[in-house]
Amino acid sequence: MKKIPYGRQNIDQNDIDAVVSTLQSDYLTQGPKVREFESKFAEYVGANYSVAVNNATSGLHLSVLALNLSKGDRVITTPITFAASANCVRYAGGEVWFADIDPNTYLLDINSVKELIESKPKGFFKGIIPVDFAGLPVNMEKFRALADAHDLWIIEDACHAPGGYFIDSKSEKNFCGNGNYADIGVFSFHPVKHIACGEGGMLTTNSKALYEKLLLLRTHGITKENMEENHGNWYYEMIALGFNYRLTDFQSALGITQLAKNNKGVARRNEIASTYKKAFEGKIKFQDLPARTYNAHHLFIIEVENRKELYDFLHSKGILAQIHYVPVHTMPYYKNIGYEGSDLINAENYYANCISLPMYPTLNDKEQEFVIEKILMCLK
Questions:
Q1: Same fold for the domain at 9-261 and the one at 263-379?
Q2: How far apart are CA 202 and CA 60, in angstroms?
Q3: Is the pTM of this model over 0.70?
Q4: Of 29, 210, 303, 342, which has the fewest CB atoms closer than 10 Å, so is most exposed?
């Protein structure tokens, strides 16, 4: 059997045709496909505004800047995430504070966050960056209530979760990144994610002021809106220190066709998850699914005591399982600036046992049966 990765892109002829058509058009960048992708993505998640960027790391950076994070400001996030969720705070000169995870959902634990906030004077923290880890939505309604009580902003790192949702106390379906509870949502279009653009990302918000600021910062801080009558159409002004974080038109064309099949892809991911759960129920621990929540399943993670043995065994069989993630606070960079010895026991226990199994829409039944068979064989 061919090698089975933990995740992979699904590119079909419609995707290829869309990219080729855009490559043959007048615009390779800063053209109409970018705005079309932004509009369709905003509609998909239920947000008022979307801003396309060259990757989600850039999107996180722009988000903290748009929310006026400055040197010395403190932000809480999870240690079980890709480093970019924390690094964006450091880019702006801020301090990262880690709260622990829930040992069953693997999401940032709101009780741990609340305890951390209340251990400090009001105003000590500026914001929270929860992560919809593995595709499982954070209950943003509860985090919003906590944030409002302490005057904090929220960036929802939804890079794993387009198509995931939770049902709030008003019985309304809240898709990840819809802006109802978070100030800004951030998505990734890396090839192993749901929507593959090669690289790319999207920011979502319901705030017009934040939307306009994100647009400005995305393109060098330059605007043409302050034109005077004595200037020609060439005139522009740089009014802020911005960046070149733009997405191209041909990547946007790919994003549009990828987005169109995301619902089908998420449904298939949930079928795969159900098969794993049926095989492992009562034998192997896996991520909980809270009531009234729909997991978009970027990842399917199990916990086993002999993780290294299982990892090596699966790789020897061509099953390229992965580990998500090394806790951010244990990285040498963060240890060197004072995070060594942090008391995040749930995160560290999770990391000692976690392993991500193949999870992508084109994983077929035969391949999944092979994966399950080898896991059970090794654990026996």
A1: no
A2: 10
A3: yes
A4: 29
Say whether domain 9-261 belongs to CATH 1.20.1640.10.
no
The Cα 351–Cα 97 span in angstroms is 19
- Cβ within 8 Å of residue 246, ≥6 positions away: 29, 30, 34, 52, 53, 54, 218, 219
Residues 226, 237 contacting (CB under 8 angstroms): yes
Amino acid at 378: C
Domain boundaries, the chain: 9-261, 263-379
Homologous superfamily (CATH) of 263-379 is Aspartate Aminotransferase, domain 1 (3.90.1150.10)
Peptide bond into 325 cis (omega under 30): yes
For the range 120-125, what are the long-range contacts, defined as Cβ-Cβ under 8 Å and sequence gap of 24 or more? 122/150, 122/151, 123/151, 124/74, 125/74, 125/75, 125/76, 125/97, 125/150, 125/152
What CA–CA distance (Å, rounded) separates 369 from 94?
Answer: 47
- Give the span between the Cα atoms of 36 and 268, in whole angstroms: 26
Backbone angles phi, psi at 44, to 5 degrees: -65, -45
